[in-house]
Amino acid sequence: MIFRPGGLTRRDAILLLVGASSMHIWSLLFSQHDYPSDQSIVINNHASQDHVVERITLTTTVVEPARTQTRIQTQTATVTKLAAAKSTTKSRAVAPFAELPSTEVLAHAPGWTLFRDVYMSNGTIFIVADENARKNIPEIRMMTSTGLPAENTPENIASREPLPENMQIITPEEAKRRWVTVDPDGKYPDLNRVWSVEGNTLLFNDPTQFLRHYYHLVAELFFGVQAFWHGAFSEPLSTRDALSPTSSIHYSQTHPAVPPIHRAIFAHSNADGWRDNPGFNRYFLRAAFPSLIVEHQEDWEDRIRSTRPKPGQIQTGERAWHFPMVLLTDRSAAHRGWMCGSNTQRTASEAWDYMRLNGKLRGMHVGGWWAPVREAIWRFAGADEGLKPVLDKARQRDRKEEDQSYFGPETGVVRGLGSSAPALDKAKVADIGAEHQKKLPMPSKVVITYISRQSARNRKLIPEDHALLIESLKELVDRKNKERAKFFKDANKVLGFGDDDRKRATDEAGGVPLEWELNVMEAEKLTHDQQIQAAARTTIMLGVHGNGLTHLVFMKPTRASTVIEMFYPGGFAHDYYWTSRALGMSHFAVWNDTHRTYPDKPNVDYPKGFQENSIPAHGPTVAQLIEDRVAMKL
Ligand SMILES: *[C@@H]1O[C@H](CO)[C@@H](O)[C@H](O)[C@H]1NC(C)=O
Ligand SMILES: *[C@@H]1O[C@H](CO)[C@@H](O)[C@H](O)[C@H]1NC(C)=O
């Protein structure tokens, strides 16, 4: 391979420096300097007949966070300005003459792997690691697969085992051989053919099979992403907090912000492949991540093709893309894990449980790690639950959060995982349980939302049972509201207030019965905003097993927050059960006139009748279950 000196002219070198200095100015204006990461740069001048080549080598040194700021402000020379700029940009692009950084696996659970400095060339993910570092790289089949659609046949399972063309681990020497041009005369520095895709990237290796569903995209894929990402970049809990299920930290919904995710790449899906028919996936993605750049299969193909060596052409050498920070998810790999594969069948559960076991899951009993997404959606939908925190903040004149730029330069640092993980006794790490939900405040109003599937194509209740169910729920709500009215009447009589003086009666008497409300929701008749608003107000979400129950991820956590899922008797699936519990809420499976809950949950089963339209549900049983649950008898 011949290095051509004309490849980088003096003009290019100057532009490089100008670009880097303006990055420096940018970083001075906007950086927060929270995290240690500094790169010093040495520039040597090598003169040749016609060209001057600036040699730039990058070395990484770690400095104390407090000192970063000082260093930046006192540096003056162009050379050191470059270094300062580098020290504050999150995504460390690989400069043309830089040595290629080796790959680090910052966090890993089956199907969920957070990489720093990983590469892609010709469609293959390359992990660069020397013999020693290789020991810390997880098994490839626990990170990725061929990305083919899943079926439950031995042939199909085998066809999803990853191949060398999907992922490889190579040595730094091999990476250099592939992607770096070395001048045989040693006159010029090594020039790499690696281009950085800056920022934080989500790389989804899944086919459209499970993307085009509201539940799978939002309550499984992004639910897992949020648990993993928020967990990875959160400070680890103290050992004491991690082991104590009653620590107040497990009840907190406010945690320091984590670095933004800049880009999502659906490697095996076109633009249509992740958009569900009711349109909730696009609504969710834009509302929760308004600045997220979405790339599709076509874009990934662009990147593959532009790094594919063309036979018959002049050999210019292989190119590669460099990703400074990537969360790679793979559904098949998640199913190879114990938690997902043998226990919950939910890919997100691998991400969630890994962070829990490492003392990194924030606000476990109230979905604190999920709160940023939940609140973003509430606010987008115009739900009071989302507007109130923003108004409160405005009143306190605490605008700090709103001023933060999505593309700001803060660097994400992962602590408390891998070799720095504290030695937690995994069997003793706190888990969720209904008893912890009892410590939450009661809702100000009990709102029952029955998500009806009666106008769906399949999985409906027997029409008479549906009618009786609504009748029973109405009876319950009316009776509760009458009890409340009677309470005020009696209290006012005793206290000598006017008949309607509820506020004074409440203040003086206390223990006021709550107001109840029933919503029978036919999702297809409501706008997206209306559905989210309804979910945000819901205390008890009730429905036949199905996609509509996905809205549970936007319920507000309270003492009584409960999901009641009706199945054909004998049937059960973990989807909404696991998801409810992962947010600290209770879940009951109803089989006509019986119900089951954790830890006495049924086994997964899809008996005949599961998908059909004559599912029995005994209304009075469901109403009694709700009454007992709100009274904390269950
Ligand atoms: C690039 O990838 C394609 C598809 O996997 C493969 O057939 C081809 O051999 C690869 N080319 C090189 C040079 O690795
Ligand atoms: C459902 O429960 C009710 C009340 O116990 C009972 O009368 C009815 O026969 C049950 N339906 C089925 C299909 O088991």
Automatic annotation (TrEMBL):
GO terms for biological process: protein O-linked glycosylation via mannose. GO terms for molecular function: protein O-acetylglucosaminyltransferase activity. GO terms for cellular component: endoplasmic reticulum. PANTHER family: GLYCOSYLTRANSFERASE, PROTEIN O-LINKED-MANNOSE BETA-1,4-N-ACETYLGLUCOSAMINYLTRANSFERASE 2. This is Uncharacterized protein.
